[in-house]
Amino acid sequence: MKFGGTSVANIERIKAVAQRVKREVDAGNEVAVVVSAMSGVTNQLVDWCKELAPLHDAREYDVVVASGEQVTCGLMAIALQELGVDARSWLGWQVPIKTDDAHGKARILDIPREDLDRRFAKGQVAVFAGFQGVGSDNRVTTLGRGGSDTSAVAVAAAIGADRCDIFTDVDGVYTTDPRIVAKARKLDKITYEEMLEMASLGAKVLQIRSVEMAMKHRVRLQVLSSFEDKPGTMVVDEEEIMEKELVSGIAYSRDEAKITLTRVADKPGVAAGIFGPLADANVNVDMIVQNISEDGKTTDMTFTVSKGDFARAKQVLEGSRSVLDFQDLISDSNVVKVSVIGVGMRSHAGIAQRMFKALAEKGINIQVISTSEIKISVLVAEEYTELAVRALHTAYGLDSE
Amino acid sequence: MKFGGTSVANIERIKAVAQRVKREVDAGNEVAVVVSAMSGVTNQLVDWCKELAPLHDAREYDVVVASGEQVTCGLMAIALQELGVDARSWLGWQVPIKTDDAHGKARILDIPREDLDRRFAKGQVAVFAGFQGVGSDNRVTTLGRGGSDTSAVAVAAAIGADRCDIFTDVDGVYTTDPRIVAKARKLDKITYEEMLEMASLGAKVLQIRSVEMAMKHRVRLQVLSSFEDKPGTMVVDEEEIMEKELVSGIAYSRDEAKITLTRVADKPGVAAGIFGPLADANVNVDMIVQNISEDGKTTDMTFTVSKGDFARAKQVLEGSRSVLDFQDLISDSNVVKVSVIGVGMRSHAGIAQRMFKALAEKGINIQVISTSEIKISVLVAEEYTELAVRALHTAYGLDSE
């Protein structure tokens, strides 16, 4: 049972969470709990580090920010004991949750289970500080923002849990953003692959890495509300889902910016010439489209980057202009990426066509298209965001009645 | 160099402390730093534990409250690095600062110095999280409120430091409370024994245990201001002080309450009969006076307890009334204990007499007297506190010019 920052935001909520854990214990389950820092705490700690030094030692940053989860895991153990539940807190170095030494974004390598198993057998609830581990040199590491989700999945995998429940401030995964589409439906089940695409495309329910890890170790994940007592969305293996929907959800991301280089030479190595310098500058390129050459000599190259990388990307490209030999650099950050996602599209034709038709009927021009096995993404002008999402939600039969 | 909560209360002060540490490093010194939690933080953490459960697991309490020092030691390392000083943070379990398992008030058993020495030799500043250690079962322990002073002395003793500087919000140890006596003087030097008495008698400059430890390991302590750059008060061995004052200071404590049991049987075992049940109830008894029996059969027994124990002490005694067989229980919490302290009084007669005379001249009635080798304490009505302290400060020639 993993509880995020809003679920443990104050003493009253910590008490409520303890009650929820007690119910699982009373039902005869062996329970491990993973907690985040109280909401707002991690931001404060990160700010202090930045205030002292914009470029600070990641090892010391980890010491500072890991303290937030330390507080909540101790408090949660006290809250459980107060309810008569045998419980104890586990800090990363105590378990130990062994990670690599990539401070600030460490990866979990191993969680020994012997000691934990012995305590579960006695009925003791283990309360883990999420987000933290210990590196090879005995120093505190953290897993990156949202890392408590990954802690939870890693613990669930290590102890062979039947289920990993991620309690959060939403009650599940929806077919799309309910703030845009009133008829959005909560999904009962979704596959790991779909959840990964959803997470990558802007649905902030779960940290991407936690879904990857769940998929790798076949941990059955449930996303559910910590404030309401009802089932959430199960993230499971494809085989667990009997009736596969063609499309499970519509995602969108406003964090996109488009760059087009016109009349670059149409010859081998030109793509490497463009994207090499961008990679060196740590710019992540997403959608890439190269048009067929008209004159046989030059072509236009269009691609997208995140808005945060937009300025840097343009600077890098302008700096390489003499080498790249393009005519113009055209850029536009008023764009949105809209995606339809579903494992069902693997075995069905015509899914993409339905998307293009639905958008065309609303007069929405598609600027860039990119596809993967289980998703189709298009780039359109940002002003069409809501219209496009709603049209697609209806077109794929996702609207609730 | 130990910095208390007010010295690291915010980012600006942490930066200022880092500058101060850098000056010592630049002067060619090998420096270890011990930090408290930012002021207010520990109180907040303690409150949360109490809010969840008045009687909480001390092991989990330790996990929660130790986080405050974790934050500041990481931040301090970052601040030092930003000034170009090689530094790293050390949490209790990393050093390790080994303690016994008395959670919430643990005692330091051992601090291995090999690893630290190797780093000092390379010029690296070690920044320790004060107040915390690790118990035999690999769990976090804390040393009790004010425990960072003890951490600092323990580290100084372990590494064989030439000096242990305790930076705080006062600039040294005074002959008495400057808020009461405007002519109070800052002492250049004071002996461990005197400092111990001062600390026990209500001067809150240093945690008592830290002074005991400094005395035991002959660590030269300096109490000085973290806000002004000038020498403070050195707490040292008696042999280091050439000209011993008869009296070094006047202390007072308002945290006193007086209880008298009248007409208790004057026979062997009666004191044990009274103080045994009080000890069992964890009531600390301070001054004890038994008058000579008038009738040869009964006597009056007077003693003091702290105000916090007052109600419990009365309850325990009333509960034992049938056994103790006293006539009346007379109690009074409007009292203050005033003490004169000085190692010089060991070898000089007439010190006590000067005290009694000074108080008599002001018309102050002495209720109880208690003496030790280097201190005389009297209990007087609380309303005379300031008058008594000022009179004694003058009588022993402590007033500054």
In a nutshell, what does this entry contain?
Chains A, B: Residues 259-334, 340-401 form the ACT domain. 2 copies of one chain form a homodimer. Helix content of chain A is 35%, strand content 25%.
What does this structure look like?
2 copies of one chain form a homodimer. The first copy, chain A, is of the alpha/beta class and 401 residues long. Chain A folds into 2 domains: 2-169, 3-Layer(aba) Sandwich (Carbamate kinase); 250-395, VC0802-like, CATH 3.30.2130. Chain A is built from 13 helices and 18 strands. In chain A, the strands form 4 sheets. In chain A, strands 3-6-2-1-9-11-12-10 form an 8-stranded mixed β-sheet, with helices on both faces. In chain A, strands 14-15-13-16-18-17 form a 6-stranded antiparallel β-sheet. In chain A, α6 packs parallel to α8. Chain A is globular, with a radius of gyration of 24 Å. The relative contact order of chain A is 0.10. The mean pLDDT of chain A is 92. Chain A binds chain B through residues 11, 14-15, 45, 48-49, 51-53, 56-57, 59-64, 66-68, 70-71, 73-75, 77-79, 81-82, 88-89, 91, 93-94, 138-140, and chain B through 11, 14-15, 45, 48-49, 51-53, 56-57, 59-64, 66-68, 70-71, 73-75, 77-79, 81-82, 88-89, 91, 93-94, 138-140.
